[in-house]
Specification:
Blueprint lengths: L8 E5 L2 H10 L7 E5 L12 E7 L8 H11 E20 L3 H16 L10 H7 L3 E11 L5 H16 L2 H16 L4 E12 L2
Parallel strand pairs: 1-2, 3-4
Antiparallel strand pairs: 4-6, 5-6
Amino acid sequence: GSMFTDASVLGMDNSTEMISVANKVVKPVHPNVEFIQGDAYTTPLQDNSTDLVYGRMLYQHLSNPIKAAEEAMRILKPEGQLCVVDVDAGFQFIEPPCEAFDRLNQLAGEAQKTYGGDRYIGRKLPHIMQSAGFTDIRFQTITVSSLDIPLEEYLTITTRFKAMLVGTSEAENLMDQVLEHCQQQPTPLLMVGIIACVGRKP
């Protein structure tokens, strides 16, 4: 937004492909943003050098999230803040209920675990920040439902992603069942809770 036009912003990703996309799409619009390839555990930044570290949908993929929070602590200035926005599978539902949706959620959680991640990371963020030494921790659930986003888009962003993550014919079949279930309901409601957790460096 306009409030950060004078700020120096550094975007970091492990994938060179994503860096290349960001340079093409974001850089022309926001010239104050630089993109580098890097790792949440070992950034190339100096100690006490930054005001804010922001991790969006990152921590669910990490096998050692505390290590990433400790790295954020290292590079933040005193009073600097770490803000993590991520998911928690327990804050997702469909109404009327659908067994296929719940089963897909369960399978996605198991699949994420095999990759070293955690679909239930949201509720653990305060503990992770406390373990890394952060204080003044604020925890908030932001709910987004199919009243806010068209149902098809919602299913693509949340549920189809899970089916792809699992990557089996059972998962594809479950996805079809979820779609069918939604089409049969006069007013299906899907809800996902996105967790935002902010901690301050002492």
